[in-house]
Structure to design on (171 residues):
């Protein structure tokens, strides 16, 4: 069965619905949950699967918009600490959104790609990207939640925003 590679994120930089960007040039974001989901191309196409998932995420995403977040300390993630990040200080609305989106993924029989970093192991952060980064103490508003296709039309070199939930004035 074919799979669709998707991710829920909270962008901290402006993005647009339908925006396509290179895999190597993500706008700054907080990963909420990354997953694969299978689909039966004959019965329900991959677009239908993504639309269904987005529909299931409507209420949790909308409820979380407007949450005030604070950027925490610098840290290093990844193999040998090679990925510089800023942690996001614990915040109940962000944690609740993460948990609700995990429930959406589980409900569609998706496979979470980082189960050890999910639910109790979730450590929200924003990776530094080139010269772009956040700084400890920065205030961030959760005003852009998105479902992103990690390989639109089978192209693993690009990403596409499939659904964008925005707070009024957030984009």
């Amino acid at each position: 069965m074919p799979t669709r590679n998707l991710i829920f994120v909270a962008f901290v930089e402006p993005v647009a619905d339908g925006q396509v960007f290179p895999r190597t040039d993500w706008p700054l974001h907080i990963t909420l949950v990354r997953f694969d989901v299978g689909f039966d191309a004959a019965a329900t196409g991959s677009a239908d699967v993504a639309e269904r998932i987005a529909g299931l995420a409507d209420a949790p995403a909308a409820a979380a918009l407007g949450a005030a977040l604070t950027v925490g300390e610098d840290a290093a993630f990844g193999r040998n600490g090679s990925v510089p990040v800023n942690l996001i200080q614990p915040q109940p609305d962000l944690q609740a959104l993460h948990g609700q989106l995990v429930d959406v993924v589980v409900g569609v029989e998706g496979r979470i790609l980082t189960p050890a970093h999910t639910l109790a192991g979730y450590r929200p952060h924003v990776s530094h990207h080139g010269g772009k980064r956040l700084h400890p103490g920065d205030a961030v508003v959760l005003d852009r939640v998105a479902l992103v296709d990690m390989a639109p039309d089978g192209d693993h070199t690009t990403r596409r925003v499939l659904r964008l939930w925005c707070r009024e004035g957030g984009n």
